[in-house]
Amino acid sequence: MPTSTLMTAPPQKVFGCLCIALVVTSCATQAPRSTVGEEPGSRPTVTATGPGGTSELELRELPAAPETGDAASSAAQPAQEQRRRSELYPGTGRFIDEQAASPSAFNRNEDGDITLNFDGADIVEVVKTILGDILGRNYTVDPKIQGRVTLQTSRPVSEDALVSVLETLLQMNGAVLIREDDLFRVLPAAEVSGTTLTPTIRPVQGRGYQVAVVPLRYIAAEEMQKILQLVQGREQAVRPDSKRNLLLLSGSEEELSRLLETIAIFDVDQLEGMSFGLFRLTYVDAATIHQELERIFTEMELPVSGMVRFMPIERMNALIAITPQSEYLEDVATWIERLDQAELVTDVDLFVYRVQNRNAVRLAELLQELFTAAGEREREARPERESPVAPRMAPTKIEREGAAEGGGEGEAQGEAQGEAQAQRQTQGQPLPMVEERRPQFEPRGGTAFDVGNAQVIADEENNALLIMATGADYRKIEKTLQRLDIMPLQVLIEASIIDVILSDELRFGVEWFVRHSLDGAEGTARFDLGDIGIGAASGFSYSIVDTAGEFEVVLNALAEESRVNVLSSPSLMVLDNRTAEIRVGNQQPVQTQTATTEGGVIVESIQFKDTGVLLTVTPRVNAGGLVTMEISQEVTDVGEIDDATEQRSFLQRNITSTVAVKSGQTIILGGLITENKSVSDTGIPVLHKLPVVGRLFGTTSRSERRNELIVLITPRVVENSQAAQDVIRDFREKMQNLRFEIPE
C-alpha cells in the first residue's frame, strides 16, 4: 500500500543568497554629514559619523616622485583641496533585520495529550477524525478530494495544533481548508480563487486558508514579490499593490507566518545601510569623471564590480558615490584625486549658452568686467613660480604673432626659436615658457569680449553667447550666467490723474481736508516729503500713503457732488529699473511765424503742441518689496485766446518727484493749485460803458475758480508668470463688470 511521509524543512535556509542579492542591487541617500581632514605626519583619514557609528576611513595617496621645497608644498595643495571638498556619509551596512531572521516563533514546542497515528488512511477519514471526532467542528468535504496519508506523531500534540497539522496533510493532497463562520470547508486548491475571503492583517490561528494584507514600509511591493517567489508554495498567492505599496498574501496559517517572517527580514531601511560620498570636482567635468569611474568599478570583471554606483550632479559639478560598504569610499576618493587634475584639462571647445531672460550683449559685458577684474587681482596676489620644467630658471614668453599668420614665415620663425631655445639650454640660460593656450578667432556678425582665459561672442540676432573655453572655465562662466540670467521683475503701475474743484469744505485745499479726514485712520498721512527720506519733490506740497483706502472713500464722496474730474487713469506694465511713458491728449496747432512775400502773399508757420496728460515712471524694486519710483507728470490744457497775440494760451502743470512705497499701497501726490479769476461786463451796447451811469444799463460779473491736481499711483510687483496671469485675470474681470448704457 503506498504511503506518504510528512516532512518539514526550516525556511531560513534560503535567506543567505537573498541577502547578498539585495545588498548588490540597493542604492539610496543618507543624511549625516562628515568632513575630511589630515594631520601632519600621518596618512589622510576621514572621520565620519552616521547610523553605523563613528569610523575612520583611510585615503590612499597616489605614489609620486620625491619633491622638495616649494614644489612639494604646491603639489600637495590640490590633494588637500580635493579632500576638503569631499563629504562622506557612511551607513550601517545592515540590509536585513537580524532579529527577525532568528528561529521562528511560530514553531510550537508545547506538549499536548493527542497522539495521531495514520497509516495509509483515506484523507476524508482523517478530516472526519480531526475536525469531527476530536475538535467537534462542522465541516464539508468536496467530492473531488481523494488520497491517502500516513502520519505518526513522535509525541503528543495540543488541540490548537491539530488544524495546522490537518492543513499540511491537505496541502500534500492538493486541497485547502477554509473556515466560513463556524463551518470548515475542504476544497481543491484550484477552486480557491472562486471563494470569497475576508482579508486580515495577521493570520488567525485555526482559521485555515486565509488572505492577509501586509503594508510595506521601506521596500517596494514589486521587489518584495520577487524575494517571496523563492519561499512561497504553489498554492500561495502573492499579489503586489504598487499604488498603496502593500502585498496581498493567501495561504494557510503556517504559510502566511513564513511569508510574514521573510517580509520582516527584508523590509528594513535600505537608505540607512547604504554609504554615500559627495565629491566636488575642481578641474574635470562630472560627466567625464563619471564615465571613467564606471569603467574602473563596473565594467572591469572584478569582485567589486557593481558594488559602487556613481551619479553625476552637473549643477554642482560633483559626483555622488553609492556603495553598501563604506570602505569602498576610500578607493573612490583616491581615484577621483588621480583623475581630477588640472594638467589633464587642456582642450578648448565651443559652448553655446542661450540666454533666456536678459540681453546677450549686456551679459557678455558683465562677464568681461567680472572675470577680467578677478583675474587681475589673482595675478597681482599670486607670487612668481619657478618653471616646473627647469627649476631656478626665469621664464620668458614666446611671441606668437608670426605663427598666427601661417605660411612659410611662421614655420621659419618657429625653427629659429627652436634653435635659440636649444642654444640657451646648452648654455644654462633661462628656458622660455610657452604662452597660455587661449582661443584665437575673429568674430564676424557679433560682439566679442575677452573673459579671463576664454573668449565670448554675443550673438545679438539669436540672443545667445558663443563661448570658446576649456570645460573648467566654461563651468565657472555658466554658473555665473545662471545667476544673472533670471526673469526680471515687472511692476504694474496703476495711476489716476484727478482735477478737484476747491469749494465749500475744500476751499482751503485737499491737504487741509485730508488732515481732518484721515486723523486716527489706518492710512498714514505724510505732508512733508523731506521727513520720509524721499527727497525734495518739485511742485508737490504733500504726499499721502493710503494703506486703508480712506482717501479713495473721500474721492468717491467728492465725485458724487461732481467736484472731481478724472483727467486720465492709465495702467501700464514696466520692467524693473526701466522707464515707462504714457501720453493721452491732442495736438493743438500754434502759429509760430508770419511772413509776407514780394507778391503780397502771407505765409504762416504752424507747429503742433502736445496737450493732455503725460506720465513717465521709472520703478526700482528692492529685496524687501519696497518700490522706489521716479515720477514725471505733465498736464497741459488749452486756455483762452490772448488779446495781444490772438493765440491760444496753454496752462501747463509739470511735476517731478521720487517716492517710495510698498507693493500694493497707494501714494497720493497733491498740492498743485491753480486759481482763475475773470471779470465780464454785459448790458446795452454803448450805454453800459458810459461813466457813472453805465452801471444802470449793464451788469459786471466776477468769477473765481480754484482747482487742485491730485496724482494717485499704486505699484504692484509682478514676480513671476503666475502673478502676471493674476493681473490679467483681475483686469479682465473689471472689464466684464463694466456696464454700457445705450442712449435711446
Give a concise summary:
The chain is of the alpha+beta class and 744 residues long. Among the domains are: 26-64 and 76-94 and 272-344, 2-Layer Sandwich (Ribosomal Protein S8, Chain: A, domain 1), CATH 3.30.1370; 117-267, Phage tail protein beta-alpha-beta fold (3-Layer(bab) Sandwich); 490-584 and 612-675 and 705-736, no CATH class. The protein is built from 16 helices and 34 strands.
Describe the structure.
The protein is elongated. The longest helix is centred in the middle third of the chain and has 22 residues, at 360-381. It contains 16 helices and 34 strands. Among the domains are: 26-64 and 76-94 and 272-344, Ribosomal Protein S8, Chain: A, domain 1, CATH 3.30.1370; 117-267, Phage tail protein beta-alpha-beta fold (3-Layer(bab) Sandwich), CATH 3.55.50.30; 490-584 and 612-675 and 705-736, no CATH class. It has 744 residues and is an alpha+beta fold. Helix 3 (123-134) runs antiparallel to helix 4 (162-172). The model is unreliable at 1-76, 104-109, 384-444, 520-542 and 740-744 (pLDDT under 50). Strands 22, 23, 24, 25, 26, 33 and 34 form a 7-stranded antiparallel β-sheet that branches. Strands 4-13-15-14 form a 4-stranded antiparallel β-sheet. Strands 16-21-20-19 form a 4-stranded antiparallel β-sheet.
